[in-house]
Design brief:
single chain; mainly alpha
């Protein structure tokens, strides 16, 4: 029980640093000249100290607590625990980014938070083990979902970059999927890495480690880069919660479809169904709000607007 509580604490800390990092990244993007935001966004941010602080907060501090927490409670519960950092988003978006939240957005954040808590109550904890990879059917399911999630990521990102309507929503949802893939592969990476450090790793552990390490590294680096475009396209107070939607729902498929576990309690299914409903409602509210914001253009932006330009919010 003590380990479980410690895992929960690690997850909450991971969420705090994760959302703080996203707020700092959005602040850096807002401070970047519009012409640079349209052409070479990521390259222009590399020298921005605020952006680098945000990256460190996410990649260093949040990632460490994520690894520690997931090693204890597993991949199904961690996204819900990490999303506890929404309080940081609510404060940061209004105090640091000077974004205004209407009553509907506050309600949506509360609904999303309740949904996340319910997912936590579902107790969908996955015990870490590499023995799952000895089952060819498990490997097939894992490979299929990895490909599907990657396809959704790249497809939605492409639509968001090329489209004009709901572009920030497509970008936000799309850039949630690389982190879904990373979360799925993080646990086998942690376990295999432990075997390597203990000196007990054989060829099997080395293969799992290399596959998991390559996938985790690629999806997180590319996902982080793509996420800057989502932050650039919309308000952080809306983009960040929307980006969390696939990350909150995907663990349910991880638990029941990939690992094919049964519900741990009689109430788990009810918690999950209600949680998904609340998360979807919140996503609809944020999407509707962002669509209205995307229609707002200042006089300067109207004169500079081109077919391929980003709309500054």
């Amino acid at each position: 029980m003590a380990d479980y509580v410690l895992g929960v604490i690690y997850g909450i800390l991971a969420g705090i640093f994760n959302f703080l990092g996203q707020v700092l990244q959005k602040k850096a993007i807002n401070d970047t000249a519009q012409e640079k935001r349209d052409s070479a966004l990521v390259r222009s941010l590399i020298h921005n100290k605020t952006w680098l602080m945000g990256i460190v907060s996410m990649v260093a501090f949040s990632a460490v607590f994520m690894i520690l927490g997931q090693a204890i409670v597993g991949a199904a519960l961690m996204p819900g625990l990490v999303a506890s950092g929404f309080i940081v988003l609510a404060i940061g978006s209004t105090k640091i980014l000077k974004e205004s939240l209407k009553l509907g957005e506050y309600v949506a954040i509360i609904l999303l938070a309740i949904g996340i808590v319910l997912i936590g109550f579902s107790q969908l904890s996955i015990e870490g083990s590499l023995t799952y990879f000895t089952d060819p059917q498990f490997n097939t399911r894992l490979a299929i979902f990895t490909v599907v999630y990657t396809g959704l990521w790249l497809g939605l990102f492409y639509v968001g970059r090329k489209g004009q309507k709901f572009k920030s929503i497509f970008l936000a949802i799309g850039t949630g999927f690389p982190f879904v893939v990373g979360t799925i592969w993080l646990q086998p990476l942690i376990i295999s890495l432990g075997s390597l450090f203990s000196g007990t790793a054989g060829a099997f552990e080395w293969v799992i480690f290399l596959i998991a390490a390559i996938i985790t590294l690629i999806v997180n680096l590319l996902g982080l880069g793509h996420y800057q475009y989502a932050l650039n396209a919309g308000n952080a107070s809306i983009v960040v919660p929307v980006q969390q939607i696939p990350q909150q729902i995907a663990p349910i498929f991880t638990y029941f479809v990939i690992y094919q576990f049964i519900a741990p309690t009689d109430y788990s299914i009810y918690f999950i169904v209600i949680a998904i409903l609340l998360i979807c409602i919140a996503g609809f509210v944020f999407g509707k709000r962002q669509a209205k914001l995307e229609q707002i253009k200042g006089p300067e932006e109207k004169t500079k607007e081109s077919p391929n330009s980003e709309v500054r919010i």
